[in-house]
Design goal:
The complex is a heterodimer of chains A (653) and B (303). With 653 residues, chain A is of the alpha/beta class. Helices cover 26% and strands 27% of the residues of chain A. Classes of the chains: A alpha/beta (653), B alpha/beta (303).
């Protein structure tokens, strides 16, 4: 029981008044000689006892009335859980990958559990996870046992350390708590990466304390596989890894490539401290045969999590271009452009004719006028609905115009002038122009167009415009799929671009963009959000550092454990390899732990007290206002008054 | 601690002068030495015919009913009720509880009782009945045999005037002693508040009744004892046991007191009634002669 205005409790001293009147009241001094007390004694014992009891009840009622009145004016309330005035602790847990380093997690967790021993029943505690974004594992509550049990059962993850957001969130949470002691228990290894960018002149809210443990020592042995990718040893398939050795200065490790639980390649790695080193693992098994991907592991060091990297099999359809050579005028230019790099680039785009059935998902279709005629148009529509990517070469055919009109694109044939037209307003930030980024755009602007079509529509994003403002190159925003439109046929009667040097890079870049080869990362890291093109499906771990349950995902997924995952939407499967964040492998501690003391507010103590008191008062007023115990006390006073009147009348002389 | 005993004031003879001309009659037949106005179990010469009895040799021939002999040819002797003198023994309770007078009363209880007993003695004297006296204290004291001479009556009055109340009393013991001393078939008048164990008192009264004494109990009470009309709070002190004191709220205990006191009076009345006597309650706020006259008139009507 607490009182909002405890000063009124002093009024309870008025209880002394009826007490004094009771005990100091005039005692009968008169002696009455009576013939015999034989008839009075029993009556006296019975009646006087009853009378005395009534008087005591009267006295008690009067004292009760005064006491209750004093209590009512003091505005009593029961302290709510957040205003008990004890201790509140937030254990901020650094669950980054670096905490997996040998002994760090156990040491920091034991230290945090020791800090929790200061809590008493009624105190409160919570657990705040720092990564990937600060989030409450256990919100602040008085269930300290649950906090301890959860802390004991928890384990570090694979995220990158970022400390300041968690410190701010914990501080703000404690600033709102009302307690005598509000403390952040900072369970972290104080990795340098976590404190990079921290503003050490930023302080916690007044009254919030922070306990930082000892900074973890530098590791004895630490190396990491920083990246992994498919490569070629000549024309033979291979896996290329990059490693970095942090300590010691030089070390030899043994590494093995595993696929399907079997070692398919292995070698010793002579590591040197400093920049990344590249190692190649020639494979006896072709990448296409490794259906579930592969992993490369070094023998473990102080931080074993980054000693293994996973590589997903490359989807064949990702570099498949559906194209019908000879399907129209100028098609041979495209055919030539597509095959121009096959001799040099193992990742070269492979053009294939349109299949008889449904087009494979993940391929890129170059749709000329014949694709808008049955039966190809039905395949095209299904291909689009399944998220396919299409390059539409606008040639003004009626079927194509109709199809485009159905998709919100108006096509207007431009009237040829005396001089060839040129595209302008180039959006050089667009990915299809990435090959020209940092280069002169003059080759693009010098391309001449004799026959062309202006494109208009609300869903069009222009990449380059005709002089009349209509789009000549445009991206059509399409649910699920990706559509690129060029407003000119790719033949010499329409433009001279196919014979310009810029044509091949333009075609390759456009197709790579459409095939999502350019911006789709094959090297996913923990912390990345993998886009799934608004598709729904299941996300299943094929291999990984820890067992992961299969779950349903929509649109995107954010893996928390490195490994190989398979996304399936029921029609297609796509594999993703997710590896540890590179920077997290650097276990270096923050060089100046003394800076952590700067976070503690060192302002006027009275100001802290005022802040605390204000919060306490606000909380107490809210609790008192909600409970309205004074009303009940006054009601009891009323009842007691009636009872006192009734009893007092029977004892009045 | 017992209070010092103080002598009572002399009897107020002016009160006795107001005594009306009433008779003090015994309810039962009494035995006396002298002939008087009270029936005697003895058959003798009197004007009141009792019965016939067959003549026996030695009988006085003057008492033979010759007329009956003429009619029946048998000798019968006429027997007459003998009227004899009444012996009245007055017993005065001299306990401390009798030395009590509330503001509402006109007399202390013992003074009231003394006047009543003196008046009764005067009535008996007028009837030439014998009057005796016994003072009931811790034991029976100052016992006076029953006499009817005027000098005896003066001695009787002197004894009453010399009474000093106080101390405890054992009325039962005193009555037991009286039973030993008093001749049978006497009228025993007990003036007391009867604050006695009723079982013991009953035993003593039965002893008296066994000797064919006629019993009259004069239950002399202060109006305060009867009504307990007391609003004050204070320390009540037992008159007979001065160390027995109680702080009481009179108003609070009044109801219980009246219940118990009424029950006591009822049991006392029943006790006298069962023994053939009677108990009359006299309030000291009344005029003693009026109270006595009222009682005697009422008693004589019933006899």
């Amino acid at each position: 029981m607490n009182f909002l205005i405890p000063g009124f409790i002093g009024a309870a001293l008025a209880i002394a008044l009826p007490l004094a009147l009771h005990f100091l009241r005039s005692k009968p001094k008169e002696e009455i000689l009576f013939p015999t007390l034989r008839f009075l004694a029993p009556a006296a014992i019975q009646d006087t006892t009853r009378h005395r009891l009534l008087r005591l009840i009267t006295l008690a009622l009067r004292c009760l009335i005064i006491g209750l009145l004093a209590a009512a004016f003091a505005r009593p309330f029961f302290a709510n859980a957040r205003s008990k005035g004890g201790q509140v602790m937030v254990v901020a847990v650094d669950n980054s990958m670096a905490m997996q380093a040998r002994g760090r997690w156990e040491d920091r967790r034991n230290w945090a559990l020791d800090q929790l021993k200061d809590l008493q029943p009624g105190d409160e505690a919570g657990i705040l996870l720092m990564q990937p974004v600060p989030s409450w594992l256990i919100p602040i509550s008085d269930n300290i046992d649950q906090v301890r049990a959860t802390l004991l059962a928890s384990q570090p993850g694979f995220e990158s350390a970022r400390y300041m957001p968690a410190l701010r969130m914990a501080g703000q949470a404690l600033a709102g708590a009302v307690a005598q002691s509000r403390t952040i228990v900072w369970m972290s290894d104080e990795q340098r990466l976590g404190w990079i960018g921290a503003q050490f002149n930023e302080t916690l809210p007044p009254g919030v304390q922070a306990r930082f443990g000892a900074t973890a020592p530098q590791a004895d042995s630490q190396a990491a596989i920083t990246s992994i990718r498919w490569a070629y040893d000549g024309l033979a398939p291979a896996v290329e890894i990059r490693t970095r050795l942090y300590v010691p200065a030089e070390q030899t490790r043994h590494a093995a490539v595993k696929a399907g639980g079997k070692i398919i390649a292995e070698r010793d790695l002579h590591l040197k401290e400093g920049p990344e080193q590249t190692f190649l693992f020639p494979l006896k098994t072709t990448p296409e045969a490794v259906r579930q991907g592969l992993s490369v592991s070094m023998n473990s060091d102080d931080l074993g999590a980054d000693d293994t990297a996973w590589l997903a099999p490359r989807a064949e359809s990702a570099r498949t271009i559906l194209f019908s050579p000879g399907s129209g005028p100028g098609s041979h230019f495209l055919d030539h452009a597509l095959g121009s790099l096959e001799r040099f680039d193992p990742d070269a785009l492979l053009d294939k004719p349109f299949p008889a059935g449904d087009w494979p998902a993940g391929a890129v279709a170059i749709a000329t006028s014949d694709c808008f005629q049955p039966p190809l148009v039905d395949h095209l529509n299904r291909f689009m609905a399944a998220g396919g990517a299409v390059w539409i070469v606008v040639d003004g055919s009626p079927a194509q115009k109709q199809w485009l009109a159905a998709h919100g694109v108006r096509v207007s044939e431009r009237v040829p002038g005396d001089e060839p037209a040129h595209l302008r307003d180039w959006d050089l930030d667009h990915p299809i122009l990435a090959a020209f980024a940092g280069q002169s755009v003059l080759p693009l602007m010098q391309v001449e167009f004799i026959r062309s079509y202006g494109l208009q529509g609300d869903n069009l994003t222009s990449i380059a415009n005709w002089p009349d403002g209509t789009a000549g190159l445009a991206e059509l925003t399409q649910p699920g799929g990706r559509v690129f439109l060029d407003g000119f046929p790719l033949d010499r009667t329409a433009t001279n671009w196919p014979v310009q040097p810029s044509f091949v890079p333009f075609v390759h870049q456009t197709l790579r963009w459409l095939a999502a080869l350019q911006e789709t990362k094959s090297d996913w890291r923990i912390g990345d959000t993998i886009p799934l093109q608004d598709r729904q499906g299941t996300w299943r771990a094929l291999d990984g550092a820890r067992p992961q349950p299969t779950r349903n995902v929509t649109g995107s997924v954010r893996p928390t454990v490195p490994g190989i995952y398979e996304f399936s939407d029921g029609k297609t499967q796509q594999d993703f390899a997710v590896n540890t964040p590179v920077a997290e492998s650097d276990l270096s501690p923050w060089p100046d732990p003394n800076q952590f003391a700067n976070f503690i507010y060192k302002g006027d103590a009275a100001s802290q007290q005022d802040t605390q008191s204000t919060a306490l008062i606000l909380s107490n007023e809210a609790a008192e206002s909600q409970q309205r115990l004074w009303w009940w006390l006054l009601a009891i006073v009323g009842v007691a008054l009636l009872a006192e009147l009734a009893v007092a009348n029977r004892t009045a002389m | 601690m017992a209070a010092p005993r103080k002598p009572l004031p002399p009897l107020d003879m002016t009160l006795l002068a107001e005594l009306p001309d009433l008779a003090l009659q015994a309810r039962y037949m009494v035995e006396g030495f002298l002939s008087g106005q009270h029936r005697s179990p003895q058959k003798g010469s009197s004007v009141e015919f009792a019965e016939y009895r067959a003549y026996q040799p030695g009988d006085d021939l003057r008492r033979v009913d010759w007329r009956l002999y003429g009619r029946t040819d048998r000798l019968h002797v006429k027997q007459y009720e003998e009227e004899t003198q009444l012996r009245v023994f007055m017993v005065l309770d001299t306990s401390a509880s009798m030395d009590f007078a509330s503001p509402q009363s006109k007399f202390r209880k013992i003074i009231f009782a003394r006047i009543v007993l003196a008046a009764l003695a005067l009535l008996a004297q007028r009837q030439r009945d014998a009057v005796g006296l016994g003072l009931a204290g811790a034991s029976l004291t100052d016992f006076m045999r029953a006499r009817s001479s005027p000098s005896h009556w003066r001695g009787f009055v002197a004894k009453l005037e010399a009474v000093i109340p106080g101390g405890g009393t054992s009325l039962a013991d005193s009555l037991e002693s009286l039973a030993e001393l008093a001749p049978p078939r006497s009228l025993v008048v007990i003036a007391s508040d009867f604050y006695e164990d009723l079982d013991r008192l009953g035993a003593a009264l039965r002893r008296l009744r066994y000797d064919h004494h006629d019993l009259i109990g004069l239950h002399v009470l202060d109006p305060l004892e009867i009504d307990f009309d007391l609003d004050d709070r204070g320390t009540f002190v037992d008159a007979e046991q001065l160390g027995f004191r109680m702080k009481l709220d009179a108003q609070a205990v009044r109801k219980g007191y009246l219940e118990r006191f009424g029950k006591f009076c009822g049991e006392l009345d029943d006790l006298f009634r069962l023994l053939g006597g009677e108990c009359v309650r006299l309030r000291t706020d009344q005029a003693p002669m009026n109270a006595l006259a009222e009682y005697l008139a009422h008693r004589n009507q019933r006899l």
